[in-house]
């Protein structure tokens, strides 16, 4: 329902079943205030339809596939009250908190990639990870989405301190990380988080939720075997969420 993905929830569930997964959790982009990133997400008045559609798929696949209801929320300072109201409106299983904007710049949008050339990368990442830490501190989310997202087009973090500090905050707040395999489909050709940050997270006891960030049914479960290997090599563990409670 975000306007930039294809396929019906039923097709995603069937793809999960065909891929041999035990279950999947839908995490469409959540509604935000009308002024924020409107073309890339469902409107607030479509939220009930989203919930109903996932519930129907849940019933249809009952006993064959565990279907859960989630959201990918945005952390953008000032919108917390709106987000909190949406999160209180339905019985979500799992809520990812993601940072997609630095100020008004949607830094993961290929249309605005030239902006990286006008930025100091160290400062960019310090600003970004300060927002990630802020997201973790809100208490609104179960996990942090695609941790090192600004590397998407190949602009890697020249430093490490801000990322490690953000991980300290994530660990302290008791959140998980979305292990997001979409990075393997992008120019950077590396999952989020990087192997180094996967290890740093595992060392802090932060668990991972497998995520393919699927925007077509064919992307469901994308490279999960490689994801498991990277997590296990780092000494990490995988969890899932149901009713916003973590399960091993
Ligand atoms: Zn999307
Ligand atoms: Zn995202």
TrEMBL record:
This is Histidinol-phosphatase. Keywords: Amino-acid biosynthesis, Histidine biosynthesis, Hydrolase. Belongs to the PHP hydrolase family. HisK subfamily. Pfam families: PHP, PHP_C. CDD domains: PHP_HisPPase_Hisj_like. GO terms for cellular component: cytoplasm. One of its GO terms (biological process) is L-histidine biosynthetic process. It catalyses: L-histidinol phosphate + H2O = L-histidinol + phosphate. Pathway: Amino-acid biosynthesis; L-histidine biosynthesis; L-histidine from 5-phospho-alpha-D-ribose 1-diphosphate: step 8/9. Its EC number is 3.1.3.15. The keyword Hydrolase applies. InterPro entries: Histidinol_P_phosphatase_HisJ (IPR010140), PHP_dom (IPR004013), Pol/histidinol_Pase-like (IPR016195). GO terms for molecular function: histidinol-phosphatase activity. It comes from the Bacteria. Residues 2-182 form the PHP domain.
């Amino acid at each position: 329902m975000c306007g930039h993905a294809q396929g019906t929830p039923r097709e995603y569930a069937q793809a999960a079943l065909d891929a041999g997964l035990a279950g999947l959790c839908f995490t469409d982009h959540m509604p935000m205030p009308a002024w924020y990133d409107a073309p890339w997400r469902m409107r607030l008045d479509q939220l009930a339809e989203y919930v109903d559609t996932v519930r129907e798929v849940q019933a249809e696949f009952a006993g064959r596939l565990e279907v859960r209801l989630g959201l990918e929320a945005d952390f953008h300072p000032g919108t917390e009250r709106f987000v909190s109201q949406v999160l209180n409106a339905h019985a979500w299983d799992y809520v990812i908190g993601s940072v997609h904007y630095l100020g008004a710049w949607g830094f993961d949008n290929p249309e605005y990639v030239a902006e990286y050339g006008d930025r100091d990368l160290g400062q960019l990442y310090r600003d970004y990870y300060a927002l990630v830490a802020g997201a973790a501190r809100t208490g609104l989310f179960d996990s942090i989405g695609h941790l090192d997202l600004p590397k998407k087009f190949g602009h890697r973090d020249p430093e490490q301190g801000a990322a490690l500090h953000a991980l300290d905050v994530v660990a302290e707040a008791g959140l998980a990380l979305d292990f997001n395999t979409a990075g393997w489909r992008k120019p950077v050709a590396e999952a989020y988080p990087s192997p180094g940050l996967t290890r740093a997270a595992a060392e802090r006891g932060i668990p991972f939720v497998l995520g393919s960030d699927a925007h077509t049914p064919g992307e469901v479960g994308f490279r999960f075997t490689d994801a498991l290997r990277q997590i296990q090599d780092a000494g990490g563990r995988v969890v899932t969420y149901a009713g916003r409670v973590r399960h091993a």
